[in-house]
Every structure is written in structure tokens, then in C-alpha cells.
Amino acid sequence: MLDTQSLYKILFSHMGSQHWWPAESKIEVILGAILVQNTNWRNAAYALEQLKVKTEFDPEQILNLDWESLQTIIKSSGFYKNKARTILNLLAWLECFDFDYHAVKLYYQHQLRNALLEVKGIGSETADVLLVYIFEEVAFIPDSYTRRIYKKLGYANTESYEKLKQHIQLPETFTNADANEFHALLDNFGKNYFNGKNEKKYTFLDTYFEE
């Protein structure tokens, strides 16, 4: 069975750096991480663009929007009522630290993931994405594509996010950059392999797949 370190090396050798997350600021990453929940990136990106037009991604401007107005702006992302509430909740939480991400990290230290999960609307996957892409931590993000890849590699406990996360440990040598790249590689491989896009270019794991 292919271990995580070997999987990372093979993906990187075939696909190279993915330059993910596509954003000009951490606020844009935060908004994208919420808007992409339960939808595809195209829908999330359109909602992001509308939000940029209306607020220039200024968190104070976003917080000054009422809930209904924010819903209208991000409607293309789906589940817009819940997402609007989550955006406002998370930005209000970050505002307590003047949007100083380093200060947040220092304050919560090893309890940061738990603190993120206490923000209403933030689930496990979004919390881990924020840990990696905002707070520069090392975390495994077993999203749907990652679970499908690990299942085909013969791993058990792939039926849920929490189960696979409990059973997979990233290598001790992994840096934040590695965690970032690994997540991006898995997602982009999954999008191409499982959705039939350029599938012939992504057969290099077939020899390791068990089903």
C-alpha cells in the first residue's frame, strides 16, 4: 500500500506545484473557503467576484452589510443563507484580534482548531483549510476527492472526513508548504481523474489503485 509520503512525491513528480490557493489576500482565501462549501469552484469564484465588486474584500465593509444583502451578493455559491451567516460570524471573531492572524495563532496555540470549530458555521474541513492556508499550520485535509483517492489505494476509514483524519498522520517532516501542496495536488488529481477531464494524463496512480 502506498504511504502518504510516497503518494505526495509521486503526485508532485507528475504534476508539479499547483500554486494554490488562488487569492491576493488572506481575506479572499477565507471567503473562498466558505463559499466553496458544497459547490464547485466556478460558482464560488463568481460569488467572490461579486463580493469583491461590492466590498473590495474589506472585512469591515463586509461586516457592515446586513445579512440579507450579503446573501444576495453570494447567491451563486448556493446555501447562501448559511454561508452569509458563517462569513459574518468568522469575520466578527477575527475582528476581535484586529484581523491579526499571528495574534490569533499565538492566543489559541494548540487549541486553534477547536476555537475555529466553535465559530458557528465552521466545520472540520473549513477549519483545516484555514489552519493550512491562513494560519500556516500543518494539517491533513481529507476532503471528498482525497477520501476517494485513499479508498482506491486500499485504505480503510474513508467513509467520512473525521474517520480518515483520525487514521492518517502526515509525515513529521511535512512543512506548511508541503501540507498546502499535498492538498492541492490531491484535489486537482481528483478533479481530473474522477471527472474524466484529461483522464489519460492522470493514470500514473493506476498501478497503486486496488479497485
From TrEMBL:
Pfam name, any one: HhH-GPD
Keyword set, alphabetical order: 4Fe-4S, Endonuclease, Hydrolase, Iron, Iron-sulfur, Metal-binding, Nuclease
Residues of the HhH-GPD domain: 35-192
GO terms, molecular function: 4 iron, 4 sulfur cluster binding; endonuclease activity; metal ion binding
GO biological process, one term: base-excision repair
Protein name: Endonuclease III
